[in-house]
Amino acid sequence: MKGQLTSQENVRRIYLQIIKQKIERYNFNSMSTQTITPDVSGYYGEYGGMFIPEILRTTFDELVAVFTEAKADPEFWQSYVDVMQSYSCRPTPVTLLENFANSLGGKFQIFCKREDLNHTGAHKANNVMGQGLLVKRMGKKRIIAETGAGQHGVATATMAAKMGLECTVYMGSVDVERQRPNVFWMEQLGAKVIPVTEGTATLKDAINAAMRDWAESLETTHYVLGTTCGPHPFPEMVAWFQSIIGQESREQMLKLSDKLPDRIYACVGGGSNASGIFLPFLEDESVELVGVEAGGHGLDTGAHAARFSGGSVGIAQGYKTYFFQDDEGQMLHTHSIAAGLDYIGVSPILSHLHDQKRIRFTAATDEAVISATKLLIRTEGIIPALESSHAFASVVEEAPDIPDGTQVLINLSGRGDKDIFNIAEAIGDEKWQEFLQTRALKH
Amino acid sequence: MNLTEYLTKRLKKRKILLMTHVVVGYPSLEANWKMLEAMGGADVDLVELQMPFSEPSADGPLFVKANQEALRKGIRWQDYFDLMKRASEQFDFPVLMMGYCNTAFSMGFEAFCANIRRHCGEGFIIPDLPLEEFGELFKLSRDQDLDPIMLCTPTNSEERLQKICSHGSGFIYCVARKGVTGQNTQLDLAVENFLRQCRQYTDLPLALGFGLSQREDLCQLHGKAGIAIVGSALLKTWEAEGESGYRKHLISLAAARE
Predict the structure, then answer these.
(1) Looking at the domain assignment, is residue A236 inside a domain?
(2) Which fold has domain B3-255?
(3) With 60 as the cut, is the pLDDT of residue A18 above it?
(4) Helix or strand or coil: residue B120?
(5) How far apart are CA A165 and CA A61, in angstroms?
């Protein structure tokens, strides 16, 4: 018995040594302080802030204090890297997509960062595990979350199961319909999923509902916001956790090709995967950063979610940023084939970098996204989430103008298995329809 | 006579004052007018008119529905201000703007204050605008003789309460409990203590809101708060019992002031 313990301790010691070597590769403490640290009021340039009801003030002050303390604590980051490696397959690889690049006829290289290989299938794990560790630090027992596509909900429910927390997920009833498989998994993981029927019954309404829950439950509960939006300190906090993507990518690209990529593409909904991969490259001026928003049916149709094309600056859901709104500040309906991009606002960090022209923003239509999805599946055997496919669609579109020898890095933020119903429907696969009918008849 | 003086004067005759609420455009502008007439008839002391917003994050289910329905019916800023002006001219009670900060921001703070003044409103309540974000709004509202109403909550620290109260104007809106509008509040010792705490930091009348619905709730507040705010409960009555039930409810509430 004693021998067993000793050998277990030994294994643990060796493991910790490995972790320690690995943690030195990450550079959380030198995360560029000028570029993503907001001012004391939580602003990035003109954007961000804390537009919160007074009832939540103390809770937010506590959260700011806990995060500030954790940020400066190497042990906290060590525990973060530890859990990401042992539980979520980090570091995720960078894959060279030769076939995909060849099919575009370009003499350039395309790499992709494999966030799809994270536990639960998307970059969302990076954020929820980090916030989970913060919850432990705060000693709270219950968490709540909003979810759009359901990825953040599943990731949060997974974290709650792993960390022994009670979990409630708010999800627009339209999204519940669109993403039933994710609802199934959240419930299996022990989370309570509450469909939100108000408003457009999508992500923004789920955020409102979660905020209302929090206004009543703040003493025992932490709100695990899923993206780099909302009141300070959420954008900063989520960006720190997600920056693990860019930190790894930077080192991996240097190792693979001895130089930094020339361009990085990432899809932009709330902005967490984009912030995650972009921020560690901010000061590398040679690296062009391209954010791809949801072009829906096309920018001229009004049925899209491209805030930087069709939006204007406003204040809602606790922060100031570009919103998809009318001339009297009422939020408009957004549309995207990808539920995760179907959102009215965008990260204040990205709005700031947009104004500074550090990030170029473009949009990809639903149609272009479906075709890029098919191409990636066929040429590389990788099934991307429809959200992530937006980044690929823009590369496809811009391919004719990409100079020879360019190195392109795309953030593959999540895998597409969850989208099987939507992709099959968009492609118009008849055998899939027959399958659904047969299954339906059985019930 | 400014708002504080008006309230103080009324408080000499009444044990508590009554502030009521209308979501403009819900169920309709015509229904709003009937509600306001009922309020005029019951000699309500103060009325807040809510500007509908698509993301009313501090409101509970009933007001959320009301906001959405009003917008679905196409209520715009001008409809709102027209009603504000008509109500102010027709009735004795002062009218306050209540709404969310994106409305003020989209209009521009200066135009926002000018519009309220031009349509005879006396102040505004914006639950998602903390004092740190007021910026020019304090000065602009002074210029237009408007009272920005500050909100205090039981979760605020002593230091925070003091800071909020130091910016107070007109009266202080005390949120009786955690959560959103439209749920019951147990008027217990904690609420009393909270009101006493607020009283330490301000001489302005204290208004208590969130969850008050019946005459008994108001009677319990005699000597503890200056103004009772009844919002969702009245709208609930309108939905369940129509205009006559609404009038009865208002009269019963109004009687609790004596």
Answers:
(1) no
(2) TIM Barrel (3.20.20)
(3) no
(4) coil
(5) 22
Q: Which of B107, B133, B180 sits opposite A212 (nearest CB)?
A: B180
Evaluate if pTM is beyond 0.80: yes
User: Testing the interface with A: which of B55, B64, B178 to mutate, by most A Cβ within 10 A?
Assistant: B55
B74 shares contact with chain A (CB less than 8 Å): no
**Do residues B204 and B168 lie in contact, with contact meaning Cβ atoms separated by under 8 Å?**
yes
Count contacts between A and B (CB, < 8 Å). Answer: 107
Distance, in Å, from the CA atom of B114 to the CA atom of A185, rounded to the nearest integer, reads 53
Taking the C-alpha atoms of residue A388 and residue A265, their distance in angstroms, rounded to an integer, is 10
A28 in any annotated domain:
no
Residue B121, both tokens: 């409103």
Do A256 and A365 share a domain, yes or no?
A: yes
Q: A367 CB contacts (<8 Å, ≥6 apart)?
A: none
Identity of the amino acid at A254: L
* Residue A146 and residue A103 share a domain: no
Q: Are residues A139 and A261 in the same domain?
A: no
- The ipTM of this complex is 0.95
B107-141 pLDDT per residue, tens = 999 999 999 999 999 999 999 999 999 999 999 99
User: What strand order describes the sheet that includes A359-365?
Assistant: A94-96, A109-114, A407-412, A263-267, A288-296, A359-365
Q: H helices within A28-123, ranges in order?
A: 33-36, 57-71, 74-88, 98-103
The Cα–Cα gap between A409 and A406 comes to 10
Distance CA A259, CA A256 (A): 8
Expressed as residue numbers, the domain containing A321 is: 94-120+242-427
pLDDT tens digits, one per residue of B153-212: 999 999 999 999 999 999 999 998 765 555 555 667 888 999 999 999 999 999 999 789
Dihedral through CA A309, CA A312, CA A316, CA A319, nearest 10? 90
CB contact residues (below 8 A), chain A span 31-60, against chain B: 41, 49-59
Regarding whether A106 and A150 lie in a shared domain, the answer is no
Q: How far is CA B7 from each of CA A384, B37, B116, B172, rounded to the nearest angstrom? A: 63, 21, 20, 12
| Domain CATH for A414 | 3.40.50.1100
A223 with A316, same domain: the answer is no
Strands B227-230 and B17-23: parallel
CA B123 and chain centroid, separation? 10
A271 φ/ψ sector (left φ>0, alpha ψ -120 to 50, else beta): left
